[in-house]
Amino acid sequence: MRSTSKRAIIIWFIIPLILILLTSGGYFLYQTFKGSSVRSRRIIAWIRNPLSNPEWSLESLKRCKPTSPFLFPTDGYVGYLWDDSFRPGHNHQGIDIFTSKKSGDTPVYAAYGGFLSRLPGWKSSLIIRIPDDPLLPGHQIWTYYTHLADTNGESYIVKDFPPGTSEFFVSEGTLLGYQGNYSGTPGHPVGVHLHFSIVKDDGKGSFLNELKIKNTIDPSSYFGLPLNGSTNRDEIPLCPPL
Ligand SMILES: [Zn+2]
Predict the structure, then answer these.
(1) Residue 153 confidence (pLDDT)
(2) How many Å lie between the centroid of ligand 1 and the Cα of residue 3?
(3) Which residues pair with 96 in a beta bridge?
């Protein structure tokens, strides 16, 4: 009798509960990551065979519309957007532009003029201060460029901007370096790309921590691109028709 009632509890209560938890947990993960996985599949397809989809690529030094504030800083396919989520609790703080060429081969240019700094320890990153946000005049913003180094952290940033560079004025279109695959940990490369983000000012003349999404702004509208990481995940991020 006792074992029968135990079995009944398992059949009618525990098993359905486990099924409900598994289903709802799976649905949550699916909703969270489906966009990113669509994008990840496209990035792999793009890197394997860029010639099959040449229309996916942005062209450096061009802009979507004459009124778009930022130039495209490099050639390639915008694989990940701002606010994409790769793992629970993490959202992407910028856009990733993937080249189809080798590490060190694809130039990266300043998307907008400003004052360039490179902290002494930065191997693959630099940041440009823009005193007057072109879309929100009166506010200072910072544009952050990273992954400009090889697998082992050998920098691809041009010699004009060595570590320790501070407040060096560059105009839009200035060559900054080349797309690389340095992850921050030597010997553990990422796919060759440029990570570009817009970082908010701390109000005291410096920038906030660029690793946190709340300290960043979606760059899409600065390029005239219509998308961000939370909508239209199935579309390719390209300039809207003029
Ligand atoms: Zn990125």
Answers:
(1) 97
(2) 56
(3) 80, 195
Residue 42 CA neighbour count, 13 Å, CB half: 24
| Token digits of residue 66 | 């004459």
Is-contact 76 58, C-beta < 8 A?
yes
Q: Which residues does residue 146 pair with via DSSP β-bridges, in sequence order?
A: 195
Distances (CA, A) of 4 to 10, 11, 110: 10, 10, 73
CA dist 70 and 185 (Å) reads: 30
CA of 21 to the centre of ligand 1 (A): 32
Count of alpha carbons within 13 angstroms of residue 25, beta-carbon side? 6
- Mapped onto helix, strand or coil, the DSSP state of residue 131 is coil
Which residues are bridge partners to 178 per DSSP?
A: 107
The whole-model pTM stands at 0.85
Report which of 59, 37, 46 is spatially closest to residue 98, judged by C-alpha positions. Answer: 46
Q: What separation in Å is there between the alpha carbon of 203 and the centre of ligand 1? A: 25
CA nearest neighbour of 219 among 137, 126, 145, 165: 145
Query: Average of pLDDT values for 33-60?
Result: 83
Work out the mean pLDDT of the chain and round it to a whole number: 89
Q: Residue written as tokens 């060595």?
A: 162
Q: For residue 81, how far is its CA from the centre of ligand 1 (angstroms)?
A: 8
Q: Where are the alpha helices (DSSP H) in the chain?
A: 2-9, 15-48, 220-223
Length of the chain: 242
By the 8 A CB rule, do 225 and 64 touch? yes
Q: Which of 35-39, 80-84, 162-166, 167-171 has the lowest mean pLDDT?
A: 35-39
